[in-house]
């Protein structure tokens, strides 16, 4: 078992582990406009991790906003998650929203969480068992949040970093969005990018829904001794880039700008390039 991802082979061999919980973090509607290959199907025994509702601050006008530690814990307990649970998260696109679920557990202080490399498509490709999705009631868990604020950044902190250049800001959006050559998928947002940011589209880090080998990732990802801040459209695919840096063994401090371009792009007073 690696630090951030596991293979479908590993998961299949450990399905009977008593402390294992499989979470389906799929989003049927995504800003990448990718049609999920699988509809209403899940890995056998998986529990649905609802990023949009249960695990977001739904009172915030920004999508996918970080929930309070209390809300997160309540939702995790309802799913039967314990403080000692080993959690494997996946999604129906291979690698898309599952890294966001991984990051959410990390920021809430849970260590034993991994992303399933290749997700549901790779699982099904290998002939492993799936089932129809269903609403189930689980024995309540005892999960407790231990919030780690250093993994989270606000627009004020990003604005300050433009001046100090203390950290490298990495934008996971597509190149044409980063360069402002196309309209944003969300209405009302300006086009462009945060000044000084580096564009590493998350799609460059993946092949057929799985992360590229460590050696290839290392050739793509620039490294120095600066802390790393990650941004995207709404804080989801930024977590893919973050995990890629984890996979190459980068030890620099890492955090996600949760508001991302959905917040930055709608505030006229914030600078853009």
Instruction: Give me the strand/helix succession.
Output: EHEEEHEHEHEEHEHEEEHEHEH
State Rg.
18 Å
Poorly predicted spans: none
Query: What is the residue-mean pLDDT, rounded to a whole number?
Result: 95
Characterization of the model:
This protein has 273 residues and is of the alpha/beta class. It contains nine helices and 14 strands. The strands form four sheets. It has a five-stranded parallel beta sheet. Helix 3 (98-107) packs across helix 8. The longest helix has 10 residues, at 69-78. The chain is globular and about 50 Å long.
Short description:
The chain is 25% helix and 16% strand. The protein has 273 residues and is an alpha/beta fold.
List the helices and strands and how they pair.
Layout: E1 5-6, H1 8-13, E2 20-24, E3 41-43, E4 47-48, H2 69-78, E5 86-90, H3 98-107, E6 113-116, H4 119-125, E7 130-132, E8 152-153, H5 155-164, E9 168-171, H6 175-178, E10 198-199, E11 206-207, E12 210-211, H7 214-220, E13 228-231, H8 238-247, E14 254-257, H9 260-264
Parallel strand pairs: 1-6, 2-4, 2-5, 5-6, 8-14, 9-10, 9-13, 13-14
Antiparallel strand pairs: 3-7, 11-12
């Amino acid at each position: 078992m690696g630090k951030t991802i596991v293979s479908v082979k590993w998961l299949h061999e450990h399905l009977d582990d008593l402390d294992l919980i499989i979470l389906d973090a799929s989003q049927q509607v995504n800003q990448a406009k990718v049609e999920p290959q699988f509809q209403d199907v899940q890995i056998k025994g998986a529990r649905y991790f609802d990023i949009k509702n249960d695990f977001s601050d739904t009172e915030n006008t920004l999508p996918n906003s970080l929930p309070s530690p209390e809300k997160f814990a309540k939702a995790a307990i309802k799913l039967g998650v314990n403080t000692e649970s080993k959690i494997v998260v996946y999604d129906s696109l291979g690698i898309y929203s599952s890294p966001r679920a991984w990051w959410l557990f990390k920021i809430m202080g849970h260590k034993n969480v991994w992303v399933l490399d290749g997700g549901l498509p790779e699982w099904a490709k290998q002939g492993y068992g799936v089932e129809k999705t269903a609403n189930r009631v689980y024995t309540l868990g005892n999960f407790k949040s231990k919030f780690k604020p250093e993994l989270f950044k606000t627009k004020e902190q990003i604005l300050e970093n433009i001046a100090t250049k203390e950290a490298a800001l990495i934008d996971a959006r597509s190149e044409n969005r980063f360069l402002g050559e196309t309209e944003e998928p969300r209405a009302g947002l300006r086009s462009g990018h945060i000044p000084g940011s580096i564009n590493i589209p998350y799609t460059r880090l993946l092949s057929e829904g799985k992360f590229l080998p460590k050696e290839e990732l290392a050739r793509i990802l620039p490294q120095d001794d600066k802390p790393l801040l990650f941004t995207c459209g709404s804080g989801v695919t930024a977590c893919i880039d973050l995990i890629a840096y984890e996979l190459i063994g980068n030890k620099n401090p890492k955090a996600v700008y949760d508001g991302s371009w959905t917040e930055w792009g709608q505030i006229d007073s914030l600078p853009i390039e």
